[in-house]
Amino acid sequence: MATEKGPLEASLPKEDEARGSAEEISGAVRDIDVAARFLATLDDDVRDTPITPEEARKVLWKIDLSILPIIWISTIVAAVDKVVISNAAIYGMKTDTHLVGNEYAWVGSIFYFGFLLFEYPTSFLIQRLPVAKFFSATVLVWAIMMCCTAATHNFAGLAAVRFIMGMAEACLFPVCNIITVMWWKNQEQPIRMACWMSQFSSIFTGIVSYGIGNANTPLASWRLLFLVLGCFSLLWAVVVFLFLPDSPAQCRYMTDREKFICLQRIKDNNTGVESKEIKWYQIRECLCDPKTWLLFIFSIAQNIPNGGVCVPESHVPAYL
């Protein structure tokens, strides 16, 4: 008679099971993700009680109302902090910082140099560190850089803070993707991703810039703009740290039953929840998949014009 696998056994990679090596299996047990560890210590009454559709719906609503707003607002905050430099230029930033020639264009571009340079290191850190805590730390870094931008007086200062800000924001989309996979089923993910990738930042940037730009203060309008947005980002870093869990199994405001339902909902995704082990066979499989390269080309084609327009966009009406 076939026996049902426990949660610990079920989490073992299939290739390790096929090899049947005791040494390899023991290594896999050490490398299982936090979800398997949680399930292994879960009370039998919680695990064995069938999940009702009503319970599943309530948990989904709780996820949508607690997790989605955090990653949604995080992407808006990041986008606003990234492109607000174009609005700051209208309020005298270029004059006050003595930008000449192509220096303003370089201030806009150097953000992406930092972004690209830190993309691979940040992927490694996401794998090794608690996802939400690491993310809140990067939000804190780019918030500090926003505040520091208000104190710059030349091209070198602007370039330095923009480069570091790009490094900090490099983890934004990888983290949001990982969190989406952790919490929602495959068929639920597209609409949630559409939410946090939506371009609401353009609305907020224009409104905030207009309000601050017309304020009568001793401080230059563009400096005040960076300070206000930087302080808001600092507060948001605290919110992310306090309320975004590293995984469903580590969510403080969910009961063990709700955590169990979260994990059962996404088990068919076959993606796991959080593992600290880099599996090189998965990387090789990804690099050999033509769809990976098609998505890569699509992303390049989409973001080259996007990156080129976002910095000078606010200047267009001024030239008309």
UniProtKB/TrEMBL annotation:
The chain crosses the membrane at residues 67-92, 104-122, 134-153, 159-181, 193-212, 224-244. Keywords: Membrane, Transmembrane, Transmembrane helix, Transport. It is found in: Membrane. Residues 1-22 are annotated as: Disordered. It is a multi-pass membrane protein. Its main location: membrane. Coiled coil: none annotated. One of its GO terms (cellular component) is membrane. Residues 12-22 have a biased composition (Basic and acidic residues). GO terms for molecular function: transmembrane transporter activity. Residues 67-320 form the Major facilitator superfamily (MFS) profile domain. It holds the Pfam family MFS_1. InterPro entries: MFS, MFS_dom, MFS_trans_sf. Belongs to the major facilitator superfamily. Allantoate permease family. This is Putative allantoate permease protein. It comes from Botryosphaeria parva (strain UCR-NP2).
